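Side project, low priority. Logging it here so it doesn't get lost.
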Amino acid sequence: MQFHDLKPILVAFVILISISFTSAQSNFLSTGGFLFANDSNLSDPNGKAAVDENELELFAASRMLSTSSSTMIPVELNHFEVEVISKQEVMVRWMTSLEIENDFFEIEKSEDGVNWYAIGEMNGKGTNFEHATYMFIDKHPKLGRSFYRIKQVNFDQDYAFSNAAYVNIHTDDFQIFPNPTRDKIFLFVGHYSKDLKFEIRDIIGNIHFKGDLTSIETEINVSNLIQGTYLLQIVSEDGHYRKPMVFVKTK
C-alpha cells in the first residue's frame, strides 16, 4: 500500500503534493514538491512517471528556459517584452498568471547575450493566483544592441531564467560644429551615455585625441592639428558601437 502526504496551500482546490515511493513497481524516481490541481492526470515534471491515483492535473508551471535544480519552479510567465520608449530609457515588462512562493525578480542585461549582469530587482507576489504585471525602466541604456532577461527567484533560492529579448538603439543625433574649424569643435550628442568616448584620427589612422564625453555638449581643442581631414569616432566603452564623423581642420 502506498501513502500520499497531501498538504493544502491557501486555496482548497490547489495542493502541494510530496510523493515518495519505495515500491519496486513505482516509476517515480524523485521526491519533492510539485503543484497539482483539478481532476485530470498526475505526472512527474521529470517525465519519469504517470499516476492514476487521485487523478490530479499538474500545472505547466513555468515557461522559464532553465532552472537551478530539477524541481519545477511554479511561476507562469506568459508575457515578456522590452521596448525603447525614449532615447534615454528602455522599458522591460512581463506578466505572470501564477506565482507560488515567488520571492523576487532580478532584471539582467548583456551586450553580447553571453555575459550578464543585474541592473535591478522587483519583489514578487509570494503566492498569487491572479494575473500580475511588472515593469522596470532601464534609465541607462547603451547605444547598439542590448539583451535583457528576467531571473525569477523563489523563497528557497531556486531560480529560473526567462527567454532573452533585445533592443537596438541607433541615433544620428551627433553633430560637429563648426565644420570646417580653425581651433576647436563642439560635439553635440543627442543620446548621452556615461560609457561614450571619442577618438580623433587622421586619414592614415593615427590617433591624435581621445577622451570621454562628459555631457550632451563637449568642447574639443584641435588647434594643434595640422590642416587636413580628420575622422572623429564616437565609441562605446565596450566597443560594440561606433559612430564615425568627418571634419576639416583649416589654417
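Brief comment: The chain is about 0% helix and 55% strand.
Revisit when time allows.
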